[in-house]
Design brief:
By secondary structure, this protein is mainly beta. It has one helix and nine strands; from the N terminus they run H-E-E-E-E-E-E-E-E-E. Helix content is 6%, strand content 42%.
Length: 150
């Protein structure tokens, strides 16, 4: 069923300590031009990428079972003639759905269609990535290329 509505399933005050991570919810689009499933194993993990309607911005999400998952993501679906900034919201190394469910890291950098990212979803965890088209070269200032292990 089509429904261009996003939500956070909890009381707003429970997110106040995590406003840096909540930025993804603020950024994510409500309507899509394209959806791609990058990897999946039923009952274990799924990673999907969606392109926001009318833009060159992409949003990727992965969720895993209690076994966790290691991803090797190729961003070859990005337009070669565009520049992008990715913000990765990922499980920290010590994250676990039972023992440390709120452990996360945020990394930001430049990506292209040649970028390959290696990410780990903790047991019962996952990650999200916002990939925004660069509109002004000034946005790139101070950022490095993202690649390899995140």
């Amino acid at each position: 069923m089509y429904s261009p509505l996003q939500m956070a399933a909890d009381l707003p005050e429970n997110y106040e300590r995590f406003m840096d991570a909540f930025q993804f919810i603020k950024d994510v689009a409500l309507d899509w031009d394209d959806s791609r499933y990058l990897e999946a194993e039923p009952g274990r993990y799924i990673t999907a990428a969606r392109k926001a309607k009318g833009t060159n911005n992409w949003f990727i999400g992965c969720t895993s079972s209690e076994q966790g998952h290691a991803s090797t993501l190729k961003l070859d679906f990005l337009d070669a003639d565009k520049q992008y900034i990715a913000t990765v919201y990922a499980d920290a190394k010590d994250a676990d759905y039972k023992t440390n469910p709120q452990a996360y890291v945020i990394r930001k950098g430049i990506v292209s269609p040649k970028t390959v990212l290696k990410l780990k979803a903790a047991p019962g965890g996952g990650y999200v990535i916002s990939i925004m088209e660069v509109k002004d070269k000034a946005e790139l200032k101070g950022l490095k290329k993202l690649s390899g292990n995140i």
